[in-house]
Amino acid sequence: MVERATDIPLDERRPHLPQVPLRELCQRYDITFKKGLGQNLLLDDNINRIMVDAADVAIDDAVLEVGAGLGALTRRLAMQAGHLLSVEIDPSFIPCLESQFGHLAHVHIFRGDILNHELGRLISEYLPAKPSYKFLSNLPYYITTPILFHVLESPLYFSRLVVMMQLEVGERLIAAVNSENYGVLALAGRMYADIDIVHQVPASCFLPKPKVDSCIVRFRCFEAPKAGANTPFTMRLIRAAFSQRRKTLRNSLIKSGQFGAPQEIMLAAFEETCIDPGRRPQTLDLDEFIGLAASAKRMLDAHNPAPAQE
After folding, report:
1. What is the Cα Rg of the chain in Å?
2. Over the stretch 218-233, which tens digit does the pLDDT of each residue have?
3. Residues 167 and 267 in one domain
4. Which helix (H) or strand (E) holds 135?
5. CA distance 145 to 70
6. What is the pLDDT of residue 37?
């Protein structure tokens, strides 16, 4: 019988990495947290364990971590993942990270802004080719959405994303149809994944203490965006619909001209999909928006055929 890597006890697969108190690391490397980068010290290491468990990280996984900081989450990932690329934008953290993980062949520390790098090129340089990857991050509040969609919209397939974020943003991502928080963010996220909040994290778990609570959000990603969706066109329609949230779809998508499609095409698309244009945008689920967008796109293409190729 061939022994698989996942059958070998964890301690035999990875060297034990001692847990150094974070305050001690701050003193040793003269680290101060920068408010402008949204940096906070997570005091409860149990939260990092919950994140790794939620991502179901295993020895066969190649993992991308963004915002490594002092390396508390990095440490847990290094002991469980087969390969790890940890990205950190702040150069003052790099010596601390290199001293803890630089000797590990399966861990790579990269300094840079993840938004300035094409993920396919970055990952191909530092991680082995895999059919899917996993992504974990303690994201600064101010940049949560851009980084999330940088990963979700990447041509690479990330099977799971587990992200610490502001509780309010997490609640918007999982909001139910016709609820107060339901809108563009919930619909955009559902284009790519099933989303749930794994754990709420009170502000008291951080130093300095932020003004709001946080949460751990898990994305169980589809192998491709939601079936039937022309993602850019569908999202353009959704954004136009919610640009006047309190008004009907007739106002936001037809009368206002915000969406840009001729009125007769949008009226025909509503009729074809049996969606009442007198409804408000927050009453439509994702499948209804996808159907409406697909109908409008087909009619627009017929109305404005592409020029013949010479």
Report:
1. 23
2. 999 999 999 888 899 9
3. no
4. strand 133-138
5. 23
6. 53
Sign of the alpha-carbon dihedral angle for 164, 5, 88, 185: negative
- Residue the block writes with tokens 């305050």: 23
Instruction: Give the residue carrying structure tokens 């074809």.
Output: 272
**Which residues is 162 bridged to in the sheet?**
136, 218
Which phi and psi (to 5°) does residue 97 adopt?
-70, -45
Give the β-pairing of 193-201 and 107-111.
unpaired
Contact assessment for residue 216 and residue 51, using Cβ atoms and an 8 Å cutoff: yes
Q: Which of 169, 193, 221 is the last residue of a domain?
A: 221
Most confident by average pLDDT, 141-155, 166-180, 201-215: 166-180
Number of domains observed in the structure of the chain: 2
Lookup result for tokens 């010479």: 310
Tokens of 15: 């060297």
Going by the DSSP 8-state scheme, the letter that residue 273 receives in this structure is: H
pLDDT at 140 over 90: no
Residues near 78 by beta carbon (within 8 Å), at least 6 away in sequence: 14, 17, 84, 101, 104, 106, 107
